[in-house]
Design a protein that fits this description.
Blueprint: H1 37-66, H2 73-84, H3 91-98, H4 102-114, E1 118-122, E2 130-134, H5 136-157, H6 162-177
Antiparallel strand pairs: 1-2
Helix pairs in contact: 1-5, 2-4, 2-5, 3-4
Length: 184
């Protein structure tokens, strides 16, 4: 579900000097390594590492913001997903949407149900199917969480100008939209 922190240093300086895309950056357009497959894979590896470090940092910041509300980032993601459905989803629907194994959903639903944010409901058409409904407490939590999420995003995006944020948004959309569908 959400990437756990690893012991890798999150705030370590990048391996290559210069900024991505600059003439001094290895693998930059027009540089000697941009046409070699080795330079490209080195640049791709560095980009992947930077994305992982950023993801870990965002996860830590978000965890810190969510802690006073008493919810984890994974629980927040599940609660947000349940709220997106028009009708109460099945546990299997949630596992598929979140791209996790059903057992992970069960654990998250257990915790959210204990805190009164969701409830399990029987499916009217099948006794074996369990649906998950968001409660009024869950909706109130989501309202609180949205501001915590904005604060986490602002903290991580603080070094960027509005124009840079727009460019980053476009690049991230291109990456997300270009990803092949995963089937669990």
């Amino acid at each position: 579900m959400d990437a756990p922190d690893s012991p890798a240093p999150v705030d370590a300086p990048p391996a290559a000097s210069g900024t991505p895309g600059s003439a001094s950056s290895p693998g930059a357009p027009g540089s000697a390594t941009s046409s070699s497959s080795s330079g490209s894979s080195d640049t791709d590896g560095m980009l992947a590492e930077q994305l992982l470090r950023l993801t870990r940092r965002l996860h830590r910041i978000q965890s810190r913001q969510l802690e006073p509300i008493g919810i984890t980032p994974a629980q927040f993601r599940l609660l947000r997903t349940v709220a997106q459905y028009d009708a109460a989803p099945r546990m299997a629907d949630l596992a598929q949407r979140l791209e996790v194994v059903p057992r992970a959903v069960t654990t998250l639903v257990d915790a959210l149900e204990t805190s009164g944010r969701v409830r399990r409901a029987p499916d009217p058409d099948s006794r074996r199917v369990v649906r998950v409904e968001i409660t009024d407490e869950g909706r109130a939590t989501l309202r609180s969480l949205r501001s915590a999420r904005r604060a986490a995003a602002e903290e991580i995006l603080a070094p960027l100008t509005a124009d840079q944020r727009e460019v980053l948004g476009g690049l991230l959309s291109a990456l997300v939209d270009g990803m092949p569908e995963r089937h669990c």
